[in-house]
Structures are given as C-alpha cells and as structure tokens.
Design brief:
By secondary structure, this protein is an alpha/beta fold. It has one domain (2-6, 13-19, 38-95). 34% of the residues lie in helices and 17% in strands. The protein has 3 helices and 3 strands; from the N terminus they run αβαββα. It has helices at residues 2-11, 34-38, 78-95; strands at residues 16-19, 44-49, 63-68. It has a 3-stranded parallel β-sheet with strand order 1-2-3, with helices on both faces. It is flat. It starts with a helix and ends with a helix.
C-alpha cells in the first residue's frame, strides 16, 4: 500500500487500492506514514481492520476508508471487503 501510494502518479495509476495501510510502525505512533497516503495524487480506497496495530487512517480528500472487524491481516469479513472494493471500482468507472 505504501509503495502504491508513493508511485501512483509516476506509474500513471488511475487509483490506489490499499488493503490495509500501515499508518505507523507497531508501537511507534509518533512515526507517521500518513504523508505517503496523503500524497497519492489519485483516488484511494483503504480497507482497514478496526484493531490494526499499525494504526487506522481517516478519510481525506479523494480518500475513502472502510473499516472492517479485525486487524491488519483482514482475515475477517471477506464479503464486506469484496463489496466495498466493488462499489468503489464502480464509482471510479462511472466518473471516468
């Protein structure tokens, strides 16, 4: 997710899908990685576990965050994950 956000515009990506974005290293909330997420330059969907030990990003300009039960591994609620991604992709294709 971090690399996708950092390289999205250079690679010519239309959008970035982050299946969990590590906002900070475990136990180091003072070391934020939020600027990487904020600098994507394209629409971003982050699907994140509510109890992710790497932190939970918030919505932002051109960024939607969907919270699911669980942690960074997103091993729960696969049906909701699929629905969220499908709806987001449909929105992107309608607006392009």
């Amino acid at each position: 997710a971090r690399v996708a956000c950092r390289t999205a515009t250079t690679a010519g990506a239309a959008a970035v899908l982050c299946l969990a974005f590590p906002v900070h290293p475990p136990g180091r909330p003072e070391r934020t990685r939020a600027p990487e997420l904020e600098a994507a330059g394209v629409p971003v969907l982050v699907v994140q576990g509510r109890s992710d030990r790497f932190g939970v990003p918030g919505d932002g300009p051109d960024r939607r965050v969907v919270l699911l039960d669980g942690d960074h591994g997103l091993t729960k609620q696969h049906d909701l994950l699929g629905s969220a991604v499908g709806e987001w992709l449909a929105t992107l294709t309608r607006s392009s």
